[in-house]
Amino acid sequence: MSRFKIIFFIFFLFVYSKMVFSQDITIYPKKMEDNLKILTIPPEMTYHDFKILTTDIKMKDYIFSAIMPGYIHFKIEEKKKAYTILGLRVLSYSTFLFSYFKLRSKGENFLSLAIDIFKNNTLPQEEYSISLSDIIYFLSFTTIIGTYFYDILDGEYSLEKKKSYIRYKFFMKKSIEEKLYGGKIEVIGNF
């Protein structure tokens, strides 16, 4: 075994063990959770609402989202979007592999053409026809990357939207009731 392979294997084990056994991979660790700065929990708050308020999306979740499609949406309990992302990514992986092996069996390689163009900074002299397998290969790769970013961006947006609604529902609404009306204000809408 070459020295490079041994070093790479040790580095991989070190990174993998840090990722699996750590609570989080953070650049700027926090001393206190900033989502829940409340003195008392309202009695009408459900466990689901409390869980959403205390949920954070961290660097470790980004890594898990790359491995497990829809991980962030599963974490914030949006099952429909999570299963859609999971299905799209599995379909994209299967079509990506199918088109790759189909291109490979023909002796064509779209990736080697792209690398040649990048290295030589010129187009090849011979004609290269783009086949349906090339298009499927590119679209599958784009869908894999797109679902990853959608999971992260939409997951963070949805989580913040839910947190804002819960904060309004329990804390801001309660303070308005006590200060202005002395009664109860009904909020229409649910998550």
Summarize this structure as a short list of keywords or feature phrases.
single chain, 191 residues, mainly alpha, 7 helices, 0% strand, elongated
Task: Name the beta content range.
Answer: under 5%
The coarse overall form would be elongated
Tally of helical segments: 7
Query: Sheet bearing the most strands, described?
Result: none
Structural class: mainly alpha
Binned, the helix content reads 55-70%
What sequence of helices (H) and strands (E) makes up the elements? HHHHHHH
- The counted number of beta strands is 0
> What is the rounded distance between the termini?
56 Å
The poorly predicted ranges are none
* Radius of gyration using CA atoms only: 24 Å
Query: What is the domain total for the residues?
Result: 1
Please state the average pLDDT score: 75
Describe the structure.
By secondary structure, the protein is mostly helical. The protein has one domain (3-181). Helix content is 68%, strand content 0%. The chain has seven helices and no strands. The radius of gyration is 24 Å and the shape is elongated.
